[in-house]
Amino acid sequence: MPRLVSNPPSPWQSQAVEWLEEPPTSALEIYEEEAKSILSKNDSPDIGFRYSINPYRGCFHGCAYCYARPTHQYLGFGAGTDFERRLVVKINAAALLQRELRKRSWKTELIVFSGDTDCYQPLEATYKLTRQLIDVCRSAANPIGIITKSCLIRRDIDLLSQLNQRADVTVYVSIPFHDSTTARKLEPFVPSITKRFETLCALSAAGIETGIALAPIIPGLNDADIPILLETAHAAGARKAFMTLLRLPAEVAPVFSERLAEAFPDRTEKILHAIRETKKGRLNRSSFGQRFSGAGPRWEMIEQLFQLTCRRLGMNRDKPTMVVKKTGPPGIQLDLF
């Protein structure tokens, strides 16, 4: 059982200040736990990697659309504000990973950081769990992929560069919005769009393979941003890209709908209607092969816009990089990294 830290480390300490925006209004509670395992094994046919690692449960960034929110309920917490402010830290993460990679049964294989919650959320500035995990992978020459919204990853460019000399490293920076005001309303504690593009540029300049994650695409809100986001990412050195359609499983739907109505009261119904247009009249489709992608003319136009822009810019030339696949036979995984 996670234990509450009575005097949690502040995410606004001097070494982290430059990465953060305004502090939240709700109280932050940090729980530490000795996790029993650290690698999650995925067998879903519509996710393009097998192993992922999440050193933190819950996410400070507070994105209204985060599909991982329901997982917090397994701990007896809520999927709303609890997910953002009652955070669990797996303090033994590095030791667990080291144990896994030393097993004779381990076949060197890609490990993806942030399959659910961001491994570079502000607590990482103090706990440095992700840095420790990268160091373990560096020692074992094990390839990694990272998906993050945070600029804090720039602190670890030295380690990432060292690992990159021994094994493949790919980093996707998630930037789903071009308009800063829109972004701040739905991802309130994520670093600014400008800082994220600067991070993409710094990683690319260090020789690390980079990409942009347009995740999620919210029809009627940010689908028109696709060309400018891809163009800006390409200018920052990114040569890969993927996109996913908004997912609203279980308790995510009411959290998202409530915050959407608060942020865009005049556009809420129009946006919800556009989402349903891409999901056969529903707000969510949970079946494998359908969770991250859409259907119908509107989704086809979105896909075409993405693919044509990538082709024009020369992105995804090495191998196709979409996080989802067309609806079809199960068992087909995409190359994401």
Structural class: alpha/beta
Percentage of residues in DSSP E strands: 5-15%
Major sheet attributes:
7 strands, mixed
* Second CATH tier, the architecture: Alpha-Beta Barrel
What is the name of the CATH class? Alpha Beta
Estimated helix fraction: 25-40%
The CATH superfamily turns out to be Aldolase class I
What value does the average pLDDT take?
88
Low-confidence stretches: 6-20, 320-334
Q: Using only CA atoms, what is the Rg?
A: 19 Å
Provide the succession of SSEs: EEEEEHEHEHHEHEHHEHEHHH
Q: How many beta-strand runs?
A: 11
CATH topology: TIM Barrel
Give the total of domains.
1
Strand order of the largest sheet: 3-4-7-8-9-10-11
Q: Cα distance, first to last residue?
A: 34 Å
How many helical elements?
11
Question: Tell me, what's the shape?
Answer: globular
Task: Describe the structure in your own words.
This protein has about 325 residues and is of the alpha/beta class. It has a single domain (about 5-315), classed as Aldolase class I (TIM Barrel), CATH 3.20.20. About 30% of the residues lie in helices and about 15% in strands. The strands form 2 sheets. Strands 3-4-7-8-9-10-11 form a 7-stranded mixed β-sheet.
